[in-house]
Amino acid sequence: MKITHKRKENHDVNLDVRAILIFVQQILFCICGKTKAAVELTFSTILASMALACQDMYDVEIVDGVIVPVSHFHICLASSGSRKTTVYRIAMAQIHHFEHQLAEVFSVRLKEYERQYVLWDEECKSLKKSLQKARRQKDGIEEARRELEECLKNEPVKPVQVHLTVTDPTPEALLKEMSDYSSLGITSDEGSALFESIMRRKTANINSLWCGDNYRVSRVSTGSFYIKDPRLGMLLMMQPEPHDNILRSLAKKTRPTGGDARILRMDLTLITRPIDINDLVPGNESDLDKFYSIQKKHLTAGSERRKKNEPRICMTLAPDAKKRLHDIDRHIKYLIQPGKKLYHYNDWGARFTEHTARIAAVMQLYITPESTVIMLETLEAALLISEWYLNHFMMKMDAVMGPSYNEIVLEWFENNLVKNGSYDFSRREIMQKIHLPLRKKANLMPILEQLSDEGKVQLWEDDDGKHYVKYLAYEMTPTELDSKLNILSGRPAYHSGGSVFSSMPLKE
Question: Of the candidates 289, 316, 343, which is a domain's last residue?
C-alpha cells in the first residue's frame, strides 16, 4: 500500500484573539464591520501600516546593545473577493494622505528653488564677467574672485521629493529612491509581479535594507550612490496561487539567503477557524480616527527627525518583558538544534526573537505613543503573533519544499506496516531500507528522538540488546492491519496534533 503525503488540517495557523490588544481590536471591529473583510487579513494589513509609520522615528533594543529597526516585511495572501484592496486603502489612508501633503509642500519649495536658482545663476554670471574684466584690467582681481566664490557657495539646494511608498519599483529604481530619502515602504494590493521581481533579482539587497545596514551602489550605467541608515518596510497583497508558484520556483535561491525568513507571511486560505468579529472588543469611527492620529504623529516625528538630522528613539523592554524575551530566545535556540521541532525552519526560528521585538515595539507605540518602554502584556501578544506567522511560514515551506524528514519517516512506517507485520520495527532494518540520507545513525536518531518526544514513536530495547521503534502515529488502524495479517487485536487509534510550540512556555 502506498501512502502519499497528505496536507492535514492544521489549527495552529489560526490567530489567537488574545494576540490582538484591545486598542487594535477596536480598530479591527470598526474596519471589518464596514468592509466585511476577515479579521486576520485586516489585522496583518493594519500591522504593516503601523510599522511603516514608525520606522523612520524608532528602533528597538532586543538585548543589551543589540538595536534593530522596527520595519516589517508583510505578505498578505487571500483569494479574489476577500476585499484585499478595500482593506489596503483603509490601512494606508493616513500614510497616503501624509505623502500627498509632502508632495504639496515639495511643489511649493520646488517653485521657490527654481526662482532662487534663476536669481543666483544671473548673479554668478554677472560676477564671472566682473572677474574677467578685472583680469583684463589687472585690477581688483582678488576682490572679484572672492565675491564669485562666495556666490558659488550659496547655490540654492534643490528640495528632495519625499516618497513614503512605492508601488512598482524596479530593484534599481528602489535603491536610487532610497539614496534620496532612505525611509521607504514597498506597498501594493496587487503584488505578485513585484514580489517575483524582488525575490528573483535583488533578494540580497532587500535583506540588507531590512537589517538597516548602510548600502553602497556602484555601477557604470548609473554611477555611485550611498544609502545611509536605511529603513525599508513592505506590504504586498496577492492571491495564494501565484505567490506559491513564485515561491516554489525560487525557494532554492531565496531561502538560503534568508529572504523568506524576513517575511511575516499570512495566508487567509489556510485558516480553519476565522476570528468572529463578535469576539472583538467593539469599536467605532472615533477609534479609527485615533489610530490615524497616532499614525500621523509618528509620520510627522520621523519627517522632523530627518530634517534636524537627529538620532532615532530606541524602544526598550520593561525588566519583566526583557526577562520573558530572554527565556523565549533561549527556548527557540534549543528548538532550532538538529533533530528538534524547528530544525527544518531554523532560518525563521533564528529571527523569531527579532520579529517579536519589532512587532511588540510597533504595537506599544500605538498603545502608549509617548512611551518608549515595551510592557510585558504587549510582548506576550507579540509572541503569539510571531508564533502565528511562524506557523504560516512552516506550512508554506512544507508545501514548497515537500515533506520534512519527520514526515518521510512516518510515511515509511505506514507504507511498510504490512510487510513488517507489526508496529515494531527493527532499528537496524530501518537504517538499511529507509530514505538514503537517513541511513546514517547521526541523521536518523535525532528524527526518531523528536518523534518519540511527540508521542508518535516509542524507542525500546529487548533483552538481547536489540533496538526497536514502535510506530504509534498510524493511519492504518490495528483492525485494518488485523484484516491483512490476522495477528493483531484492536488497539485504540493514536491521534497526533498540536502547535509546534506545544512545549514552548508562551505563558508562565
Answer: 316
**How big is the chain, counted in residues?**
508
- The count of structural domains within the chain is 2
pLDDT tens digit sequence for 418-468: 888 888 999 999 999 898 778 888 888 888 988 888 889 999 999 889 999
Helix axes 203-211, 171-180, angle to 10 degrees: 30
Domain enclosing residue 469, as ranges: 405-485
359 falls within a domain: no
pLDDT in tens, 234-291: 999 999 999 999 888 887 777 888 889 999 999 999 999 999 999 999 999 999 999 9
The whole-angstrom distance between residue 247's C-alpha and the CA centroid of its chain comes to: 15
Among 1-10, 39-48, 238-247, 355-364, the least confident range = 1-10
Residue that is last in its domain, among 265, 289, 316: 316
Cα angle: 356, vertex 333, 252; to 5 degrees: 80
Residue of 1, 17, 5, 57 lying closest to 314 (CA atoms): 57
- What CA–CA distance (Å, rounded) separates 191 from 6? 29
C-alpha cell, 275: 476570528
Concatenated DSSP letters of 403-428: --HHHHHHHHHHHTHHHHTSSEEEHH
Asked if 398 and 405 count as a contact pair (C-beta separation under 8 A), the reply is: no
CA triple 239-191-178, angle to 5 deg: 155
Q: Is the same domain home to 312 and 412? A: no
| CATH number of domain containing 476 | 1.10.10.10
Residues 195 and 293 in one domain: yes
> Which three-class secondary structure state does DSSP give residue 262?
helix
Q: Is the domain of 203 the same as that of 304?
A: yes
Q: What are phi and psi of 308, to 5 degrees?
A: -85, -5
Which of 232, 233, 297 minimizes the C-alpha distance to 98?
A: 297
Instruction: For residue 396, tell me if it sits in a domain.
Output: no
